[in-house]
Structure formats: C-alpha cells, structure tokens
Amino acid sequence: MGGDNKGENYEYGPHKVAIPPAKPFLKGLKSSLKETFFPDDPFRHFSNEKSWVRRVVLGLQYFVPILEWAPRYTFSFFKADLVSGITIASLAVPQGISYANLANLPPILGLLAVGSLLIASMLGKEVSATEDPKLYVQLAITATFFAGVFQSALGFLR
To answer: Which positions, given as ranges, span the membrane (predicted)?
Structure first.
C-alpha cells in the first residue's frame, strides 16, 4: 500500500490565501448594495443598447416578465396551461380545505393559508379555537397577512 508518489506534487498543511486589497468605503458599499438588490445584475444584459427606448423596454420586461413572454404566447401554450391549472386545482383545493379543518379554521381559509397546520400549532398555545373562535380566526388572518408582507418584502429585495 505504501508506495511512493513519484511525479505527484502533494503538499500537506496550511495553505495561504492572499488577502484582497482594501477598497475605498464608498466603492465597497456600492458593490455590496448592488449585490444585495440586484444579485443577477439585470442591467448588464442591455447596458450596451444604444437606444434609451430599447433599454427601458428591456428593463420593463425584466421586472414585469409578462411583457416579454405575452407576445409569443400561443393557443397551444394556453391549452397546456389550462390542463395544468385544472390538475393542480383538483389536488390543491381539497388539500387546502382539509388543512383548514385540521387547524380548526373555516374551510375557505384553508385556500388562503397554506400553512394552516403551522398556524394552528402556533395559535393553539395562545387561544382556544373552541372557546374563542372569533379571536382565533382573527389571529390566523393576522399571522397570514404578516407572513405575506414579509415574503413580499424579501421577494422585492431578493
């Protein structure tokens, strides 16, 4: 097993990595903000466009994707989307209603709050669904609302 490793250059032990040169504060801040808000740099795709109108159109297409794909949308795409939508609805609607029932919420709320079971476990510790159903539903709606606000903010900030 031992054998020698002729011709192979293996080095064991700590490897040194060069420290990058320091950047001015504003340049570093600009780079960090750009990476935070636009990690995929949407403007690089059309920064070489000459016409400002074309840049605006491409920018709108990036932030509102329907403007890009809608002109190429065909009837065959619509048929496939319709079948997919019916299939998903036939599975998701009964599942949402069941989750709402398990969480002691009205069935219609199961369609709105995907995390009904999580909400039920959280709220069950604070208020009883049988003793004060109105407060229970209000707290479930409030928790769902703030989860949506938080998710939207994170989506906006990427």
So the answer is: 105-123, 135-157
Are 131 and 150 members of one domain? yes
CA angle 93, 131, 143 (to 5 degrees): 50
- Among 40, 68, 96, give the residue marking a domain's end: 68
pLDDT at residue 8, rounded to an integer: 53
Q: Is 41 helix (H, G, I), strand (E, B) or coil?
A: coil
Give the chain's length. Answer: 158
88 in the same domain as 36 = no
Ordered DSSP codes for 59-106: HHHHHSTHHHHGGG--HHHHHHHHHHHHHHHHHHHHHHHHHHHHTTS-
